[in-house]
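Quick start: read one record
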Amino acid sequence: MEMVIMAAALIIGLGALGAGIGFGLLGGKLLESTARQPEMANQLQTKTFIMAGLLDAVPMIGVGIAMYLIFVVAG
């Protein structure tokens, strides 16, 4: 049971870490691209928001799997 809870904690923690790194890289590339081509700022921002939504889905799926492990497998 303790191993299942540790696995769930690792899933949530590493998912959050990966999302944080991903958002940092995504924001940095948006700023670089906007500074390089300011006339494309609106298109770049739209595409960045779409990618941010997709990037945010991965940790949410990880939380769902972790909750399944905690409440169904360990329970």
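The chain has a mean pLDDT of 95.
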